[in-house]
Design goal:
alpha+beta; Protein Transport Mog1p, Chain A; seven-stranded antiparallel beta sheet; 6 helices; DUF3558 domain-containing protein; signal; DUF3558
């Protein structure tokens, strides 16, 4: 192989690597979930988050995230029927707004970690915003490594058991919520808690 051909092959390989990196997060979802390369703290959590008062039954949610919102909740939140998506965190369901096709909310049970909400608490120094709250009496926190709330994106992590958190994510561009999306994320999370409580 001559020198020119060797350089061409190397350049093509580098281009493939860069292309793969750029395709890593095409969904718009925050890159805020632990992976298999995460440290042991992310895998098990340190217990730094508030405890869940009463663990919810999450069996249906884990098998199908679209069961996370009831039909009455969808009507109240003005959302269309959900559709399933895949992510590195586990099953995800997304719902488009019935008012604007450009606005979407999603629910993702984070199964890649057993640390629950403590996984986020243990990494709060890596978040651009970190705002603890409660949703229906359950510990939660608004947090994301990149603050895109002015762009209609809000990440709300909700503890449904001490070992499982659910990421509620908004992606708005057209509605009034595009400049203040977190209250909508809170409404969706509240409806999810009510749905899980009802079984």
């Amino acid at each position: 192989m001559n020198r020119a051909l060797t350089i061409s092959v190397a350049a093509l390989a580098l281009g493939a690597v860069l292309t793969a990196c750029n395709k890593g997060n095409t969904s718009g979802l925050p890159m805020n979930t632990p992976t298999s390369e995460s440290n042991s703290v992310a895998d098990s959590g340190s217990g730094s988050a508030p405890r869940v008062p009463a663990p919810l039954n999450t069996a249906s949610l884990l098998s199908d995230a679209c069961t996370g919102l009831s039909s009455s909740a969808l009507s109240q939140l003005q959302l269309k029927a959900g559709y399933r998506k895949t992510s590195n965190s586990g099953p995800t369901c997304a719902w488009d707004s019935s008012v604007s096709e450009y606005d979407t909310v999603s629910i993702s049970p984070i199964q890649s970690s057993k640390g629950g909400l403590s996984t986020i608490y243990d990494r709060k120094d890596k978040q651009e915003y970190f705002e603890p709250t409660t949703i229906g009496g359950y510990p939660a926190v608004f947090a994301d490594p990149v603050d895109r709330r002015k762009d209609g994106r809000c990440s709300l992590h909700v503890a449904v058991t001490d070992e499982l958190e659910v990421l509620v994510f908004t992606q708005f561009s057209k509605s009034k919520a595009a400049t203040n999306p977190c209250p909508v994320a809170e409404d969706v999370a509240t409806a999810m808690i009510d749905t899980l409580k009802a079984g």
